[in-house]
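Figure 2 data, in text form.
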Amino acid sequence: MTDVVQTEHNALGEPLVSVRNLEMHFPINDGLLIQRQVGAVKAVDGLTFDIMKGETLGLVGESGCGKSTTGRAILQLHHPTGGEVFFQGTDLTKLHGGNLRKMRRHMQMIFQDPYASLNPRMLVGDIVGEPLEVHGIASGNEKRERVQELLKVVGLNPYFVNRYPHEFSGGQRQRIGLARALTTNPDFIVADEPISALDVSIQAQVINLMEDLQQQFDLTYLFIAHDLSVVRHISDRVAVMYLGKIVELADRLDLYDDPLHPYTQALLSAIPIADPKLEATRERVILKGDVPSPVNPPSGCNFRTRCPLAIEICKEEEPVFYEAKPNHWVACHLVESGRNKLDINLGIS
């Protein structure tokens, strides 16, 4: 795995965040008086990847595959059960208390639900300005001026500081969340499906705002989503996740033009196309069965129970995540044999 990381590092530049064999297993306990662990939910199961400074890495996959847990584990909102997370060369998993708090000002999160992520009993000025006081950056008039400045940056009236969250629409609330995330001048932001709860008419505005903010403040994003069209628009590279593992990681254009993993091909086949004639000629991959339980994942390849191309080795051995072609990583036994291509017309190139 060290060779994998080194090659990616050399090709794409210096990483801001480096994740190594990250695991997040939630224990399952049984018993009334004496609790004992009888199993574990393997939400994140051995992830290794880099996020380069200034880039947007898109993380996609079905609901329940571990995307949000990955983002929270990177920020240490969940303390990982295994692995390492390096931020600017510092292993966050080894930090606690005040040392971890000092690092948190450089990392922020935008949450999925703009209604639940804002305290309904706090004024907008207090919500956005709270990180300034927590980290001892500013208070009083200085804090108020900083908050008003950030509200203007995200396209809101600076005098909204004296209003409550219930007075705003979903799109405006997400802008407030963006302003709060920018308060401490972070280098890295985890955006956990930031537009999935918004109206379609507002989604493009928020995405464009995030891109503008990235240029203005030199931000690095981990953009978590299940909408592949949005991910293609905003991301520089895309990682595809299935049942706690990354199955493919590549440059955005390369992944969409030449997907190698059968799961990625199935996801891309579901993207609707605006051209009716082209849509009529394409085929879709309908995956059979349900996603296996992360409590008891399949042996070998996690995807083999639903893969239309699975062979015997897929059941016996876990595929290695390796570089199938320059800067295009995949975990699939079928890639080397040339049998990984579904005989379909995706129609999305």
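Caption note: Residues 61 and 241 are 5 Å apart (CA to CA).
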